[in-house]
Amino acid sequence: MKMEPSSSSSRADSTSEKLRREILDGLAAPGDLLAESAVARRLGVSRVPVREALFTLERDGLVEFSGTGRAYVKELSPRDFEELYVLRLTLEPVAGGLAAPTIRSDASALLKNIAATRKARTLGEVTRLDLEFHELILEMSGHARLLKLWRSIRSELEMWLGRLQRQHRGQKLDTREQTASSHEKLIQAFRSQPPSACERLSRDHIINWREWLPMQQGQK
Which domains does the chain have, with CATH numbers? Predict the structure, then answer.
């Protein structure tokens, strides 16, 4: 009996991760109904871990509930993206300035990420590695609250970026190389510029990201 809470929690976590990957990989499209009973049958679990997983994904911004309590894959609107953009523009430049001394002394984790990006075989991998790069900088900033706030929007960023990039599959190689090259330029700056300059360059990087991936593309 003592093992039941842990087992139940494990099933909910596993279910949450499976649904998360389906949403982020585009297997569950924006607006799709996530009926508890149907999801439970498909994943071979009871409705309880499915319900808990849906609540978790709602907190992460991937699922939304209707007034009648039905769960749907969230559809990000242009306004949603603008809010995410403003948050990135607020958090990441500060983190860049704080992380600059650490990156100057050891940029190995970031360089490893760039190498992996250049070898990525899918746009989904490019998206995950892109966000991982920025999360590493947040970690290197040593500012726990900045990192926590950024992680709170990561799932929504990955869902939106993945969706947009899947609509432009023919640009996979360009996207991969542009991502890797822009990150290399950031590291070079971190290694040679003072923290204030790194903060400014991080801000420019996010602004360029906004211009390179306009929300208007692919929106209904």
Answer: 4-73 (1.10.10.10), 78-212 (1.20.120.530)
CA neighbor of 89 nearest in space, from 150, 142, 163 = 150
Distance CA 126, CA 132 (A): 10
Question: Percent of the chain, pLDDT > 90?
Answer: 72
In this structure, are residues 99 and 141 in contact, taking their beta carbons and an 8 Å threshold?
Answer: yes
Are 34 and 72 contacting, i.e. CB atoms less than 8 angstroms apart?
yes
Tens-digit pLDDT profile for residues 104-117: 999 999 999 999 99
H or E element, residue 72: strand 71-73
Global pTM reads: 0.85
Cα(188)–Cα(183) distance, integer angstroms: 9
- Distance in angstroms (rounded) separating the CA atoms of residues 87 and 143: 16
